[in-house]
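Example for reference:
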Amino acid sequence: MSEKSDLHEPKGGMADVLYEKRVKIYPREVHGIFARLRTLGVVVLLGIFYGLPWLRWDDRQAVLLDLPARQFHLFGITFWPQDFFYLAALLIIAALSLFFFTALAGRLWCGFACPQTVWTEVFLWIERKIEGDRLRQMKLDRAPWTGRKMFIKGGKHFIWIVFSLYTGLTFVGYFTPIIELSQKLVNFSQGPWEAFWVLFYGFATYGNAGWLREQVCIYMCPYARFQGAMFDKDTLIISYDEKRGEPRGSRKRGTDYQDKGLGSCIDCSMCVQVCPTGIDIRDGLQYQCIGCAACIDVCDSVMEKMDYPKGLIRYTTEHALEGTKTHVLRPRMFVYGGMLLLVMAALLYAVTQRVPLDVDVIRDRNALYRETSEGLIENIYTIKVINKDQRDHQYHLQVSGLENIKLINRMGDFTVRSGQVLNVPIYVQIDPVDLPATSNTIQFTLVATDDANITHEEEARFIGAAVR
């Protein structure tokens, strides 16, 4: 079987290119600094994913996106649909981070943090533990179906499915309390939607990480298609040093390859064998490369065995390969980095200064104003109060902005439960002699009587005929 995937060497016409049968890739296990970093990333990211739903905060789940109650709990903070702009800020931060790190060092996200990469690493690890290394897997797949082969393959897929279902359970556990969800699943009393999403996400994990693998990166992920727009000749990318490596050729250790007119590449094809997408990095920059750096680790190990300098395949730039000066710190890096820090600082400030109270003043539009029997000018408003705190509060409402202005609130101090939206009808009156103009600005101030730090001010217009 060829060490290179035929995906990148179509031999037929357009129909062959579009409908070519997939050639299965058997990535060789690799060891090295980047492999250790990738393993560390898998452990940390999956540890966070599987561990967060089980953390408790006071008497509830620490991280819970409670869609039916429209409450999004994040440790000690509860967000509501009215806080949607925080999510928008997070998406902006994610986009700017992608731009920044891609412009700096290529596809770091794809190679070390993308969910497809992370879960595929786990599935590959399970596969190696059960079926053996690359050569044993290839031999097993070529062998006829026997009881032993069915047992090995069945055991692998059974563990994959169990792991995938637990992944689906964890995913749904971010939306339904995971302890409650687990008890329901054990007793087969879960709701249809909960069961559907556990199975759906489990099936997606099993299919993408177990079967599709590199097909997701090559054909389904849009990021591979537009990543080049964020590259320039100063972007750190994984590259093969063609000037040093060519002409490639096999040789014995200790041979003076320069006398034979050879380069440093011994043409062992190890860089191809460890590639999870089956490409040959020696063919130059390709959109199929996910930047996992496995080829760097394995090539360095080969160079070390041959007593050659490391770095035949390395993180470098096109300018460096051409022999010109590289500018890693360039204008776009400062622009992306500055914007990223600015949005992150703004989000942090907004969260730390967030008041769990929202007030909206709705003026009665049926009449601009009316005169009372005492000759006062009266405007009618509805105060919409949203308590975004995790506990109930009692509030006191007052008005200011005009001399001798008077507030009539027949409800008095009122209580709003956690998450409740309460409409409070109020009347504001003033003597026409105290009106400086026909339209005037006034302020409503709402203060929690049990917590003075929870306060909110909202402006409104007061309409009335002024006495000249």
Observations:
- The chain has three domains: 31-79+114-229, 232-321, 357-463.
- The domain at 357-463 is CATH 2.60.40.10 (Immunoglobulin-like).
- Residues 196 and 424 are 42 Å apart (CA to CA).
- The longest strand covers residues 451-463.
